[in-house]
Design a protein that fits this description.
- It is globular and about 65 Å long.
- The protein has one helix and 37 strands.
- It has a five-stranded mixed beta sheet with strand order 1-3-37-36-35, with no helix packed on it. Strands 2-31-32-33-34 form a five-stranded mixed beta sheet, with no helix packed on it.
- By secondary structure, it is an all-beta fold.
- Strand 4 and strand 5 form a beta hairpin.
């Protein structure tokens, strides 16, 4: 279903009508060579993390510490109403905008917009009416040549013409009646459009699908819990438990073209809080897995949270970077996991170099011989309540700066009480609950991935007691900038090497989408979503 938009002013308001065909306002010109997706983003931002590494690092240097105080808002695009479907929830931009050939693509659940990157003026809009999807968020699109790929809440992969917004084809890849839902941005690797699913606590298995970018034909499926005959099934009590075990794949992965390996983070185990019905490590939930993108075959895994009972979705982006270790070059992967551990792995083999807490925690008794944390059973949820940490991080993206050699993550230090509400031998659903207690603290950290130690920290004022469900993503640049935000509606720019605050500006809502930067017509822009609005900043001419 297509819905119309008109051309708005530089400070734009989108008000969508209920009928009439959409009229495109751009001539055909957008084209993305798939070979360009993995290169450093300069005049484009062609995939969720900018490139395949997950570093969210820009080589642009026009905006720098000695002129950042001159930043000025260039335009704002505001989404004020998106129809009446199921009560029309207040729009919240959780996507990372993509940019190709001067056109920006942004999303919220059921909607895609193409905007002029220089002015913020809308070019076209596509609207979808879902049937049963969960409207919890939408992280953006994928692009291949002249096609934009978009996931609907009720699990349709939609292919759109990038220049007009015209629908080309659609494929339904998961059943919303089984409580699967989709919020992710597709990852395009060569001739594969790779999509994951959500379905928290609905006792279904997670999976990844790869589709042909031209026809939409299914190429392969990888299940995030083992099938019959797989030796990994011995980490579950039986095949039925594995078939209902979760491990959803609802955030995009990263990719190494040289190794031709796809790295994907997997979500929580089901039942979520009630682990008594699924003794064992419960592979491959709560893990980082390396897959062959041509076949979906598993190459290696590292389970960050074996037998998780605290909803520690391991969906934080696995960042790929190269460093010299003991005098030899190594291809590494780092992740600031939601369970409070910082992990650095050899991304060729999956062997660990660093596994270390980055927030105060006491739920692990140590590490296994493979470097995986060993959970303490007494910290599991109980009927009377058990104390453990809140989520140390969440889905908003971390970053890595090759010049400083540091990984940056917005973390939360705090405690929660976890209750077991289903103590039967065969629990289902969530099986329990967890609620924050006491005072939590939000902390921006710069972590050395070769040691796991924080080089510097910035403790936020924390006037809202550190909400953990949302938070800002992070971007770093070659000019020693780190761009993120707090929970007080401020966008903040720091020095990446020392964490010195250089600039901040209060906007209308907390930042919820991914920060990107790009250069057009000789001018560098910084772009981010906050609440229902997209903001573009640059230096005045």
């Amino acid at each position: 279903m297509r819905l119309p938009t008109g051309v708005c002013a530089a400070i734009a308001t989108a008000a969508l009508a209920a009928a009439a065909p959409a009229v495109p306002h751009v001539s055909p010109r957008v084209f993305l060579d798939p070979n360009e997706i993995g290169k450093a983003p300069i005049t484009s931002w062609p995939t969720f993390n900018g490139d395949y590494t997950g570093e969210r690092y820009s080589t642009l240097t026009q905006i720098k510490p000695d002129n950042v105080n001159r930043l000025a808002q260039q335009w704002v695009y505001k989404i004020t109403r998106v129809g009446a479907q199921r009560g029309a929830p207040v729009p919240m931009i959780k996507c990372t905008p993509l940019l190709v050939d001067g056109v920006l693509y942004i999303t919220i659940p059921n909607h895609v917009w193409a905007l002029d990157a220089r002015t913020g003026n809308p070019l076209w809009h596509y609207g979808w009416v879902d049937h049963g999807g969960h409207l919890v968020g939408q992280r953006g699109v994928g692009i291949w040549k002249t096609t934009v790929y978009f996931l609907t809440p009720d699990n349709w992969l939609i292919a759109l013409n990038a220049n007009t917004g015209k629908e080309l084809w659609r494929k339904n890849y998961a059943d919303a009646r089984k409580q699967y839902f989709s919020t992710s941005a597709p990852l395009v690797v060569k001739n594969h459009v790779i999509v994951g699913v959500g379905g928290d606590a609905m006792d279904m298995p997670g999976f990844l699908d790869s589709f042909d970018p031209v026809t939409g034909d299914l190429q392969w499926t990888w299940w995030s819990t083992p099938r019959k005959g797989d030796p990994a099934l011995n980490t579950w009590p039986n095949e039925s438990a594995s078939d209902h075990g979760g491990g959803m794949t609802w955030m995009p992965g990263t990719y190494d073209p040289e190794l031709n390996l796809l790295y994907w983070p997997t979500g929580n185990t089901n039942p979520v809080f009630a682990g008594q019905g699924r003794p064992g490590a419960n592979l491959w939930t709560e893990a980082v897995v390396a897959l062959d993108p041509e076949t979906g075959k598993l190459k290696w895994y590292f389970q960050v949270s074996p037998h998780d009972t605290h909803d520690f979705d391991n969906t934080t982006a696995p960042i790929l970077f190269d460093r010299v270790v003991d005098g030899k070059p190594h291809k590494l992967l780092a992740q600031a996991a939601r369970n409070g551990f910082f992990v650095t792995l050899d991304r060729v083999t999956g062997k660990y170099l660093v596994v270390k807490p980055y927030v105060p925690l006491d739920w692990s008794s140590g590490l296994s011989s493979q470097g995986e944390p060993i959970p303490i059973p007494d910290k599991d949820p109980t009927v009377g309540g058990s104390i453990n940490i809140v989520n140390a991080s969440n889905w908003p993206a971390p970053a890595y700066n090759p010049k400083t050699g540091l990984v940056y993550v917005n973390s939360v230090e705090g405690k929660a009480i976890y209750y077991l509400t289903d103590d039967s031998a065969q629990p289902s659903g969530y099986g329990g609950t967890g609620d924050g207690i006491g005072h939590a603290q939000r902390v921006l950290q710069a972590i050395d991935p070769l040691t796991g130690n924080a080089v510097w920290k910035h403790v936020y004022p924390n006037l809202s007691n550190a909400p953990t469900t949302l938070g800002p993503s992070i971007l770093t640049t070659a000019s020693n900038l780190l761009i993120t935000g707090d929970d007080q509606k401020n966008v903040i720019i720091y020095t990446a090497d020392k964490g010195q605050v250089l600039w901040h500006h209060e906007i209308g809502a907390n930042e919820t989408g991914g920060v990107i930067t790009y250069k057009l017509d000789g001018k560098q822009y910084i772009l981010f979503g906050a609440g229902d609005s997209l903001y573009a900043w640059s230096l005045p001419q």
